[in-house]
C-alpha cells in the first residue's frame, strides 16, 4: 500500500485557498471470506488474483465562500465484488445463487463533488452535489448524480437557548441498485437482468428542530415527511422499503457540575 498527499495554502482576496493532491496505489489480496466461505446455503473456495487500485484526487477549498471542490479518478484491476441472481415467477423468488465475483478487466471511476455552504444572517443553506461515472455499470452500478441539501434557521432565544429549525433532502438519479442477500449479509450486484431493480429519482425529506440549552439537547424530527406523496417510491435498497413519515424525538442531558 502506497499513499501520498501534498497540500498548498496561499492567500487570495483576503482569505485562504487550499489545494490538496492525494493519491494511492494499493495491490491487495482479497479478504479471507472472499476467498473461502463455508455455510449451509453458500459455499465457495475461490482462487482470486490480487486487486489493484490506483487513485488520484484533487481538492480545492476557498474558505471565504465556503466552497470545496473535489475531483477523483480511480482505476481498479481485478475488481472483487459480490454478485447474486435468482428467478422470479408467480411472485416467488427461486434458484438463488450468490458469491464472490472478480472482474478481469480494468474498471474506471470518475467522481466530482461540489460542497457549497451559504449563509444570510440566521439562514443557512448547505449543499453537496456529486457526479459519478463507472465504466462498467454491470459490475459497479452508480447513480450519476447525488444531491444533499440542508436549509435551516439558526438563532438564539434569550441568549441561552440555541435553536435550529429546518429541513434536509437527499436525492439521486435512477440506477440499478445492488440487491441485499441475507444469507451472506452483503449487498450484491444483481446479475439477472430480468430481476434488476431500478431505484432513484425520489426525494427523501426530513424536517427537524434542534434545541440546545446549557447541558441539555432536544430534537424533534419527521423523517420521510413527503413519502406518502410520491406513490411510495421510498426505497434505498430493492425490496426493503423505508418507513413512511415517522416522528422521532429525543433528549440528551449531561449531569455534571
Write the SSE topology.
Elements: E1 2-12, E2 15-28, H1 32-35, E3 36-38, E4 43-45, E5 51-62, E6 67-89, E7 92-120, E8 123-134, E9 145-157, E10 161-172, E11 175-176, E12 179-181, E13 186-190, E14 198-199, E15 204-213, E16 216-223, E17 235-237, E18 240-241, E19 246-253
Question: Could you explain the architecture of this structure?
Answer:
It is a single chain. By secondary structure, this protein is mainly beta. It has one helix spanning 32-35, and strands at 2-12, 15-28, 36-38, 43-45, 51-62, 67-89, 92-120, 123-134, 145-157, 161-172, 175-176, 179-181, 186-190, 198-199, 204-213, 216-223, 235-237, 240-241, 246-253. Strands 1, 2, 5, 6, 7, 8, 9, 10, 12, 13, 15, 16 and 19 form a 13-stranded mixed β-sheet that branches. A hairpin with a 2-residue loop joins strand 15 and strand 16 (216-223). The longest helix has 4 residues, at 32-35.
Helix content: under 10%
Beta-strand content: over 45%
Oligomer: single chain
General shape: globular
Give the integer mean of the pLDDT values: 92
**pLDDT < 50 runs, ≥5 residues:** none
Strands, count: 19
Task: Tag the structure with descriptive keywords.
257 residues; mainly beta; 1 helix; globular
Question: How would you summarize this macromolecular structure in one to three sentences?
Answer:
The chain has 257 residues and is mainly beta. It contains one helix and 19 strands.
Amino acid at each position: 500500500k502506497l499513499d501520498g498527499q501534498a497540500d498548498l495554502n496561499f492567500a487570495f482576496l483576503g482569505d485562504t485557498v487550499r489545494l490538496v493532491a492525494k493519491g494511492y496505489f494499493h495491490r491487495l489480496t482479497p479478504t479471507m471470506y472472499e476467498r473461502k466461505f463455508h455455510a449451509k446455503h453458500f459455499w465457495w473456495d475461490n482462487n482470486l488474483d490480487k486487486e489493484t487500485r490506483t487513485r488520484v484526487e484533487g481538492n480545492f477549498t476557498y474558505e471565504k465562500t465556503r466552497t470545496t471542490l473535489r475531483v477523483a479518478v480511480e482505476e481498479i484491476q481485478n475488481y472483487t465484488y459480490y454478485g447474486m441472481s435468482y428467478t422470479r415467477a408467480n411472485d416467488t423468488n427461486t434458484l438463488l445463487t450468490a458469491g464472490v465475483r472478480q472482474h478481469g478487466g480494468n474498471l474506471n471511476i470518475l467522481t466530482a463533488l461540489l460542497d457549497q455552504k451559504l449563509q444570510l444572517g440566521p439562514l443557512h443553506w448547505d449543499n453537496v452535489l456529486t457526479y459519478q461515472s463507472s465504466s462498467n455499470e454491470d459490475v459497479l452500478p452508480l447513480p450519476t448524480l447525488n444531491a444533499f441539501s440542508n436549509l435551516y434557521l439558526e438563532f438564539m432565544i434569550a441568549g441561552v437557548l440555541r435553536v435550529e429549525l429546518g429541513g434536509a433532502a437527499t436525492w439521486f438519479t435512477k440506477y440499478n441498485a445492488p440487491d441485499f442477500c441475507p444469507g451472506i449479509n452483503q449487498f450484491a450486484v444483481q446479475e439477472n437482468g430480468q430481476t434488476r431493480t431500478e431505484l432513484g429519482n425520489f426525494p427523501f425529506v426530513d424536517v427537524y428542530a434542534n434545541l440546545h440549552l446549557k447541558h441539555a439537547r432536544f430534537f424533534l424530527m419527521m423523517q420521510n415527511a413527503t413519502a406518502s406523496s410520491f406513490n411510495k417510491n421510498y426505497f434505498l435498497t430493492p425490496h426493503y422499503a423505508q418507513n413512511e413519515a415517522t416522528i422521532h424525538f429525543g433528549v440528551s442531558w449531561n449531569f455534571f457540575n
